[in-house]
Predict the structure.
Amino acid sequence: MLAVVNCSQLVTLRGAARPRVGAEMRELSIIEDGAMLVGDDGRIAAAGARSEVEPLIAGDCEVLDAGRRVCLPGFVDAHAHPVFAGTRAGEFEQRAAGATYQEIAAAGGGIRASVRATRAATEDKLVSASKRYAGWLLRGGTTTVEAKSGYGLSVADELKMLRAVRRLNAETPLQYVPTFLGAHEVPDEYRARRADYVELVIEEMLPRVAEEGLAEFCDVFCEAYVFDVDDSRRILSAARTHNLGLRLHADQLSLSGGARLAAELGATTADHLEHTDAAGIAALKSAGVQPVLLPGSVYALGSSRYPAARAMIEAGLAVVIATDFNPGSSPTPSMPLVLSLASTHMRMTPAEAITAATVNAAYSLGRGRETGSLDAGKRADFCLHDCADYRELAYFFGVEHAHAVYVGGRLAFRRGN
Ligand code: NIG
Ligand code: FE
Protein backbone atom coordinates (compact mmCIF):
# COMPACT_ATOMS: atom_id res chain seq x y z
CA MET A 1 0.00 0.00 0.00
CA LEU A 2 1.12 3.54 -0.82
CA ALA A 3 -0.19 6.72 0.80
CA VAL A 4 0.37 10.08 -0.84
CA VAL A 5 0.01 12.83 1.74
CA ASN A 6 0.58 16.56 2.02
CA CYS A 7 -0.55 17.58 -1.48
CA SER A 8 -1.21 21.31 -1.70
CA GLN A 9 -3.91 20.47 -4.23
CA LEU A 10 -5.17 17.02 -5.12
CA VAL A 11 -6.63 17.75 -8.55
CA THR A 12 -9.04 14.83 -8.81
CA LEU A 13 -11.17 15.66 -11.87
CA ARG A 14 -13.79 13.59 -10.19
CA GLY A 15 -17.20 13.83 -11.82
CA ALA A 16 -19.56 12.07 -14.16
CA ALA A 17 -18.17 8.90 -15.76
CA ARG A 18 -18.02 10.47 -19.22
CA PRO A 19 -16.07 13.20 -21.00
CA ARG A 20 -16.70 16.72 -19.69
CA VAL A 21 -18.36 19.44 -21.74
CA GLY A 22 -19.12 23.14 -21.44
CA ALA A 23 -18.76 24.57 -17.92
CA GLU A 24 -17.87 21.10 -16.58
CA MET A 25 -14.47 21.52 -18.21
CA ARG A 26 -13.64 24.18 -15.63
CA GLU A 27 -14.52 21.98 -12.64
CA LEU A 28 -11.44 20.13 -11.51
CA SER A 29 -12.79 18.94 -8.12
CA ILE A 30 -9.68 20.08 -6.28
CA ILE A 31 -9.12 18.92 -2.72
CA GLU A 32 -6.89 21.30 -0.77
CA ASP A 33 -4.46 19.47 1.50
CA GLY A 34 -5.48 16.22 -0.16
CA ALA A 35 -4.24 12.68 0.23
CA MET A 36 -4.56 9.44 -1.65
CA LEU A 37 -4.26 5.77 -0.87
CA VAL A 38 -3.10 3.26 -3.47
CA GLY A 39 -3.72 -0.47 -3.02
CA ASP A 40 -1.28 -3.26 -3.80
CA ASP A 41 -3.22 -3.82 -7.01
CA GLY A 42 -1.93 -0.43 -8.23
CA ARG A 43 -5.39 1.10 -8.07
CA ILE A 44 -6.62 4.12 -6.16
CA ALA A 45 -8.26 2.92 -2.94
CA ALA A 46 -9.22 6.36 -1.63
CA ALA A 47 -8.69 10.00 -2.54
CA GLY A 48 -9.87 12.84 -0.34
CA ALA A 49 -9.04 15.30 2.39
CA ARG A 50 -6.09 14.41 4.59
CA SER A 51 -8.44 13.99 7.55
CA GLU A 52 -10.48 11.37 5.65
CA VAL A 53 -7.59 9.42 4.18
CA GLU A 54 -5.06 9.37 7.04
CA PRO A 55 -7.16 7.16 9.32
CA LEU A 56 -7.20 4.53 6.54
CA ILE A 57 -3.40 4.23 6.47
CA ALA A 58 -2.57 0.81 7.86
CA GLY A 59 0.59 -0.87 9.18
CA ASP A 60 3.26 -1.42 6.51
CA CYS A 61 2.18 1.34 4.20
CA GLU A 62 4.77 3.34 2.27
CA VAL A 63 4.14 7.05 2.80
CA LEU A 64 5.01 9.52 0.06
CA ASP A 65 5.17 13.09 1.33
CA ALA A 66 4.21 15.33 -1.59
CA GLY A 67 5.87 18.28 0.12
CA ARG A 68 2.96 20.66 -0.63
CA ARG A 69 3.16 19.94 -4.35
CA VAL A 70 0.23 19.62 -6.72
CA CYS A 71 -0.91 16.07 -7.47
CA LEU A 72 -2.53 15.59 -10.86
CA PRO A 73 -3.68 12.57 -12.85
CA GLY A 74 -1.02 11.56 -15.37
CA PHE A 75 -1.48 13.31 -18.69
CA VAL A 76 -3.11 11.28 -21.43
CA ASP A 77 -1.58 12.25 -24.76
CA ALA A 78 -4.29 11.17 -27.19
CA HIS A 79 -2.58 12.01 -30.49
CA ALA A 80 1.06 11.13 -30.95
CA HIS A 81 3.49 9.53 -33.36
CA PRO A 82 6.14 8.49 -30.77
CA VAL A 83 7.68 5.59 -32.68
CA PHE A 84 10.08 6.49 -35.49
CA ALA A 85 13.70 6.22 -36.53
CA GLY A 86 15.92 9.17 -37.42
CA THR A 87 15.11 12.82 -36.94
CA ARG A 88 14.35 15.65 -39.35
CA ALA A 89 16.58 18.34 -37.92
CA GLY A 90 17.78 19.14 -41.45
CA GLU A 91 14.23 19.93 -42.57
CA PHE A 92 13.77 22.04 -39.49
CA GLU A 93 16.73 24.09 -40.65
CA GLN A 94 15.27 24.33 -44.19
CA ARG A 95 11.99 25.58 -42.77
CA ALA A 96 13.85 28.16 -40.72
CA ALA A 97 15.30 29.36 -44.02
CA GLY A 98 11.83 29.71 -45.55
CA ALA A 99 10.79 26.36 -47.06
CA THR A 100 7.29 25.21 -46.13
CA TYR A 101 6.21 21.84 -44.71
CA GLN A 102 4.25 21.09 -47.90
CA GLU A 103 7.15 22.05 -50.19
CA ILE A 104 9.47 19.74 -48.30
CA ALA A 105 6.89 16.94 -48.47
CA ALA A 106 6.36 17.46 -52.22
CA ALA A 107 10.13 17.19 -52.77
CA GLY A 108 10.21 13.74 -51.13
CA GLY A 109 10.99 14.78 -47.58
CA GLY A 110 8.58 15.13 -44.70
CA ILE A 111 6.78 11.96 -43.71
CA ARG A 112 8.52 10.05 -46.52
CA ALA A 113 11.93 10.91 -45.04
CA SER A 114 10.88 9.34 -41.74
CA VAL A 115 9.51 6.37 -43.67
CA ARG A 116 12.91 5.71 -45.26
CA ALA A 117 14.63 5.82 -41.87
CA THR A 118 11.97 3.69 -40.18
CA ARG A 119 12.02 1.06 -42.94
CA ALA A 120 15.79 0.82 -42.60
CA ALA A 121 15.58 0.17 -38.86
CA THR A 122 15.08 -3.29 -37.38
CA GLU A 123 12.31 -3.75 -34.83
CA ASP A 124 14.96 -3.74 -32.07
CA LYS A 125 16.43 -0.47 -33.32
CA LEU A 126 12.99 1.07 -33.53
CA VAL A 127 12.20 0.04 -29.98
CA SER A 128 15.44 1.41 -28.62
CA ALA A 129 15.14 4.70 -30.56
CA SER A 130 11.60 5.10 -29.25
CA LYS A 131 12.56 4.43 -25.64
CA ARG A 132 14.32 7.78 -25.67
CA TYR A 133 10.95 9.39 -26.38
CA ALA A 134 9.16 7.25 -23.80
CA GLY A 135 11.55 8.75 -21.25
CA TRP A 136 10.75 12.27 -22.41
CA LEU A 137 7.00 11.65 -22.26
CA LEU A 138 7.20 10.26 -18.73
CA ARG A 139 9.35 13.07 -17.42
CA GLY A 140 6.72 15.52 -18.68
CA GLY A 141 4.07 13.82 -16.58
CA THR A 142 2.47 11.76 -19.36
CA THR A 143 1.42 8.26 -18.33
CA THR A 144 -0.69 7.16 -21.31
CA VAL A 145 0.17 7.93 -24.92
CA GLU A 146 -1.41 7.05 -28.21
CA ALA A 147 1.05 5.57 -30.70
CA LYS A 148 0.31 5.75 -34.39
CA SER A 149 2.03 3.69 -37.02
CA GLY A 150 2.41 5.40 -40.39
CA TYR A 151 6.16 5.55 -40.93
CA GLY A 152 6.27 2.05 -42.42
CA LEU A 153 3.74 2.24 -45.27
CA SER A 154 4.33 -1.34 -46.38
CA VAL A 155 2.66 -4.41 -44.90
CA ALA A 156 5.86 -5.58 -43.21
CA ASP A 157 6.95 -2.17 -41.96
CA GLU A 158 3.54 -1.18 -40.60
CA LEU A 159 3.40 -4.48 -38.71
CA LYS A 160 6.95 -3.88 -37.49
CA MET A 161 5.95 -0.50 -36.10
CA LEU A 162 2.90 -1.86 -34.31
CA ARG A 163 4.88 -4.77 -32.87
CA ALA A 164 7.40 -2.21 -31.64
CA VAL A 165 4.54 -0.41 -29.88
CA ARG A 166 3.50 -3.66 -28.24
CA ARG A 167 7.04 -4.15 -26.97
CA LEU A 168 7.32 -0.58 -25.72
CA ASN A 169 4.11 -1.19 -23.78
CA ALA A 170 5.68 -4.20 -22.12
CA GLU A 171 9.18 -2.80 -21.65
CA THR A 172 8.46 0.72 -20.38
CA PRO A 173 6.12 2.01 -17.67
CA LEU A 174 4.32 4.17 -20.22
CA GLN A 175 0.89 2.92 -21.34
CA TYR A 176 0.64 2.93 -25.13
CA VAL A 177 -2.62 2.82 -27.09
CA PRO A 178 -1.89 1.62 -30.64
CA THR A 179 -3.44 3.21 -33.74
CA PHE A 180 -2.95 1.95 -37.29
CA LEU A 181 -2.12 4.85 -39.62
CA GLY A 182 -1.16 3.04 -42.82
CA ALA A 183 -2.83 5.91 -44.70
CA HIS A 184 -0.42 8.56 -43.44
CA GLU A 185 1.19 9.27 -46.81
CA VAL A 186 1.52 7.62 -50.21
CA PRO A 187 4.94 5.89 -50.18
CA ASP A 188 7.54 6.49 -52.89
CA GLU A 189 6.84 3.27 -54.79
CA TYR A 190 3.12 4.07 -55.10
CA ARG A 191 3.40 7.75 -56.05
CA ALA A 192 1.85 7.24 -59.47
CA ARG A 193 -0.78 4.79 -58.24
CA ARG A 194 -2.38 6.10 -55.12
CA ALA A 195 -5.51 3.99 -55.70
CA ASP A 196 -3.39 0.83 -55.55
CA TYR A 197 -1.96 1.96 -52.24
CA VAL A 198 -5.46 2.50 -50.85
CA GLU A 199 -6.25 -1.07 -51.95
CA LEU A 200 -3.15 -2.35 -50.18
CA VAL A 201 -4.19 -0.62 -46.96
CA ILE A 202 -7.72 -2.04 -47.16
CA GLU A 203 -7.04 -5.52 -48.52
CA GLU A 204 -3.76 -6.42 -46.86
CA MET A 205 -2.72 -4.14 -44.04
CA LEU A 206 -6.02 -3.80 -42.18
CA PRO A 207 -6.77 -7.55 -42.11
CA ARG A 208 -3.25 -8.35 -40.84
CA VAL A 209 -3.33 -5.64 -38.20
CA ALA A 210 -6.74 -6.83 -37.00
CA GLU A 211 -5.79 -10.51 -37.09
CA GLU A 212 -2.75 -9.91 -34.89
CA GLY A 213 -4.72 -7.57 -32.60
CA LEU A 214 -2.07 -4.89 -33.09
CA ALA A 215 -4.27 -1.78 -33.05
CA GLU A 216 -7.36 -0.42 -31.33
CA PHE A 217 -7.94 2.50 -33.70
CA CYS A 218 -7.46 3.36 -37.35
CA ASP A 219 -6.51 6.87 -38.46
CA VAL A 220 -6.16 8.50 -41.90
CA PHE A 221 -4.38 11.71 -42.94
CA CYS A 222 -7.33 13.24 -44.79
CA GLU A 223 -6.09 16.08 -46.96
CA ALA A 224 -6.75 16.79 -50.64
CA TYR A 225 -3.14 16.09 -51.67
CA VAL A 226 -2.73 12.98 -49.49
CA PHE A 227 -5.92 10.93 -48.95
CA ASP A 228 -9.03 12.79 -50.02
CA VAL A 229 -12.45 12.41 -48.45
CA ASP A 230 -13.41 9.48 -50.69
CA ASP A 231 -10.19 7.54 -50.00
CA SER A 232 -10.54 8.28 -46.30
CA ARG A 233 -14.16 7.13 -46.23
CA ARG A 234 -13.25 3.83 -47.88
CA ILE A 235 -10.34 3.12 -45.55
CA LEU A 236 -12.19 4.03 -42.38
CA SER A 237 -15.33 2.11 -43.40
CA ALA A 238 -13.14 -0.95 -43.92
CA ALA A 239 -11.47 -0.38 -40.55
CA ARG A 240 -14.86 -0.36 -38.89
CA THR A 241 -15.62 -3.83 -40.26
CA HIS A 242 -12.51 -4.98 -38.35
CA ASN A 243 -13.91 -3.44 -35.16
CA LEU A 244 -11.34 -0.67 -34.98
CA GLY A 245 -12.31 2.71 -33.55
CA LEU A 246 -11.92 5.63 -35.94
CA ARG A 247 -9.76 8.76 -35.69
CA LEU A 248 -8.98 11.22 -38.45
CA HIS A 249 -6.36 13.90 -39.23
CA ALA A 250 -8.94 16.43 -40.38
CA ASP A 251 -8.84 19.95 -41.82
CA GLN A 252 -5.22 20.49 -40.74
CA LEU A 253 -3.84 22.30 -43.78
CA SER A 254 -7.09 23.12 -45.59
CA LEU A 255 -10.85 22.78 -45.17
CA SER A 256 -10.85 19.37 -46.83
CA GLY A 257 -14.07 18.01 -45.32
CA GLY A 258 -12.38 15.85 -42.71
CA ALA A 259 -14.52 17.01 -39.80
CA ARG A 260 -17.72 16.36 -41.74
CA LEU A 261 -16.47 12.92 -42.69
CA ALA A 262 -15.64 12.15 -39.06
CA ALA A 263 -19.21 13.09 -38.17
CA GLU A 264 -20.68 11.08 -41.03
CA LEU A 265 -18.77 7.97 -39.92
CA GLY A 266 -19.35 8.50 -36.20
CA ALA A 267 -15.60 8.54 -35.59
CA THR A 268 -14.34 8.67 -32.01
CA THR A 269 -12.19 11.73 -32.72
CA ALA A 270 -11.45 14.33 -35.38
CA ASP A 271 -7.98 15.75 -34.89
CA HIS A 272 -6.23 19.05 -35.78
CA LEU A 273 -9.25 21.04 -37.11
CA GLU A 274 -7.30 24.26 -37.75
CA HIS A 275 -9.50 24.99 -40.79
CA THR A 276 -12.81 23.58 -39.58
CA ASP A 277 -15.75 25.97 -40.01
CA ALA A 278 -18.93 26.45 -37.97
CA ALA A 279 -20.79 23.81 -39.98
CA GLY A 280 -18.01 21.33 -39.25
CA ILE A 281 -18.20 22.08 -35.53
CA ALA A 282 -21.98 21.60 -35.58
CA ALA A 283 -21.55 18.28 -37.39
CA LEU A 284 -19.05 17.05 -34.77
CA LYS A 285 -21.48 18.04 -32.05
CA SER A 286 -24.45 16.21 -33.50
CA ALA A 287 -22.40 13.06 -34.06
CA GLY A 288 -20.72 13.14 -30.62
CA VAL A 289 -17.19 13.21 -32.08
CA GLN A 290 -14.42 14.47 -29.76
CA PRO A 291 -12.11 17.12 -31.24
CA VAL A 292 -8.41 16.58 -30.53
CA LEU A 293 -6.57 19.90 -30.81
CA LEU A 294 -2.82 19.99 -31.46
CA PRO A 295 -1.42 23.47 -30.90
CA GLY A 296 2.17 22.19 -30.80
CA SER A 297 2.05 21.51 -34.53
CA VAL A 298 0.59 24.95 -35.29
CA TYR A 299 3.37 26.52 -33.27
CA ALA A 300 6.16 24.39 -34.70
CA LEU A 301 5.01 24.98 -38.28
CA GLY A 302 5.24 28.71 -37.58
CA SER A 303 1.56 29.21 -38.26
CA SER A 304 -0.79 31.41 -36.28
CA ARG A 305 -3.95 29.58 -37.28
CA TYR A 306 -4.92 27.75 -34.11
CA PRO A 307 -8.16 25.74 -33.99
CA ALA A 308 -11.29 27.42 -32.64
CA ALA A 309 -11.24 25.87 -29.19
CA ARG A 310 -13.61 28.44 -27.66
CA ALA A 311 -16.26 27.88 -30.29
CA MET A 312 -15.92 24.13 -29.77
CA ILE A 313 -16.27 24.37 -26.00
CA GLU A 314 -19.22 26.70 -26.39
CA ALA A 315 -20.80 24.25 -28.82
CA GLY A 316 -20.58 21.58 -26.10
CA LEU A 317 -17.81 19.45 -27.60
CA ALA A 318 -15.69 17.32 -25.25
CA VAL A 319 -12.41 18.92 -26.30
CA VAL A 320 -9.09 17.07 -26.01
CA ILE A 321 -5.60 18.57 -26.37
CA ALA A 322 -2.52 16.53 -27.28
CA THR A 323 1.08 16.96 -28.42
CA ASP A 324 0.98 15.35 -31.90
CA PHE A 325 4.57 14.43 -30.98
CA ASN A 326 6.29 13.51 -34.26
CA PRO A 327 9.62 14.18 -36.01
CA GLY A 328 8.19 16.71 -38.48
CA SER A 329 5.33 19.03 -37.63
CA SER A 330 5.41 18.79 -33.84
CA PRO A 331 8.66 17.68 -32.27
CA THR A 332 7.54 18.12 -28.68
CA PRO A 333 6.51 15.43 -26.20
CA SER A 334 5.57 18.06 -23.59
CA MET A 335 1.98 18.22 -22.36
CA PRO A 336 2.85 21.20 -20.09
CA LEU A 337 3.90 23.12 -23.23
CA VAL A 338 0.59 22.17 -24.85
CA LEU A 339 -1.25 23.50 -21.77
CA SER A 340 0.59 26.80 -22.20
CA LEU A 341 -0.26 27.01 -25.90
CA ALA A 342 -3.90 26.17 -25.18
CA SER A 343 -4.18 29.07 -22.77
CA THR A 344 -2.13 31.62 -24.69
CA HIS A 345 -3.31 30.89 -28.24
CA MET A 346 -6.65 29.11 -27.91
CA ARG A 347 -7.99 30.99 -24.88
CA MET A 348 -8.69 27.86 -22.92
CA THR A 349 -8.51 28.44 -19.18
CA PRO A 350 -5.85 26.40 -17.37
CA ALA A 351 -8.65 24.27 -15.89
CA GLU A 352 -10.21 23.57 -19.28
CA ALA A 353 -6.80 22.67 -20.65
CA ILE A 354 -6.18 20.21 -17.82
CA THR A 355 -9.56 18.55 -18.34
CA ALA A 356 -8.76 18.29 -22.06
CA ALA A 357 -5.35 16.74 -21.29
CA THR A 358 -6.55 14.15 -18.79
CA VAL A 359 -10.10 12.87 -18.38
CA ASN A 360 -11.41 13.91 -21.80
CA ALA A 361 -8.31 12.52 -23.46
CA ALA A 362 -8.69 9.22 -21.63
CA TYR A 363 -12.26 8.82 -22.86
CA SER A 364 -11.16 9.57 -26.40
CA LEU A 365 -8.78 6.59 -26.23
CA GLY A 366 -11.31 4.24 -24.65
CA ARG A 367 -9.47 4.47 -21.31
CA GLY A 368 -11.96 6.63 -19.41
CA ARG A 369 -12.70 3.92 -16.86
CA GLU A 370 -9.02 3.20 -16.26
CA THR A 371 -7.24 6.53 -16.02
CA GLY A 372 -7.55 10.31 -16.42
CA SER A 373 -8.89 11.20 -12.97
CA LEU A 374 -8.06 10.43 -9.35
CA ASP A 375 -11.10 8.31 -8.55
CA ALA A 376 -11.24 5.22 -6.37
CA GLY A 377 -10.95 2.12 -8.56
CA LYS A 378 -8.92 3.71 -11.33
CA ARG A 379 -5.29 2.84 -12.01
CA ALA A 380 -3.04 5.02 -9.86
CA ASP A 381 -1.50 7.06 -12.70
CA PHE A 382 -0.48 10.37 -11.20
CA CYS A 383 2.20 13.01 -11.09
CA LEU A 384 3.48 15.36 -8.42
CA HIS A 385 4.34 18.65 -10.06
CA ASP A 386 6.75 21.09 -8.52
CA CYS A 387 4.24 23.85 -7.79
CA ALA A 388 1.53 24.50 -5.23
CA ASP A 389 -1.09 25.85 -7.66
CA TYR A 390 -2.09 23.85 -10.76
CA ARG A 391 -2.34 27.02 -12.87
CA GLU A 392 1.44 27.36 -12.75
CA LEU A 393 1.72 24.34 -15.05
CA ALA A 394 0.41 26.40 -17.99
CA TYR A 395 1.73 29.73 -16.75
CA PHE A 396 5.45 29.00 -16.30
CA PHE A 397 6.29 27.54 -19.69
CA GLY A 398 9.45 25.83 -20.82
CA VAL A 399 9.84 24.50 -17.30
CA GLU A 400 9.96 20.81 -16.44
CA HIS A 401 7.42 20.72 -13.64
CA ALA A 402 7.15 16.99 -13.05
CA HIS A 403 8.77 15.91 -9.80
CA ALA A 404 7.64 12.29 -9.56
CA VAL A 405 5.50 10.24 -11.91
CA TYR A 406 3.63 7.04 -11.01
CA VAL A 407 1.98 4.54 -13.30
CA GLY A 408 -0.23 1.91 -11.68
CA GLY A 409 1.08 3.03 -8.28
CA ARG A 410 4.71 2.42 -9.26
CA LEU A 411 7.38 5.06 -9.57
CA ALA A 412 8.11 5.62 -13.27
CA PHE A 413 10.19 8.80 -13.07
CA ARG A 414 11.65 10.90 -10.32
CA ARG A 415 13.63 14.07 -10.78
CA GLY A 416 17.20 13.72 -9.57
CA ASN A 417 18.93 16.26 -7.41
O1 NIG B 1 -0.12 15.11 -37.37
N1 NIG B 1 -0.39 15.41 -40.55
C1 NIG B 1 0.18 14.34 -40.64
N2 NIG B 1 0.87 13.76 -39.70
C2 NIG B 1 1.61 14.42 -38.73
C3 NIG B 1 2.92 14.87 -39.26
C4 NIG B 1 3.86 13.77 -39.27
C5 NIG B 1 5.22 14.12 -39.78
O2 NIG B 1 5.48 15.23 -40.28
O3 NIG B 1 6.05 13.22 -39.66
C6 NIG B 1 0.82 15.50 -38.05
O4 NIG B 1 1.08 16.70 -38.13
FE1 FE C 1 -0.60 13.67 -36.24
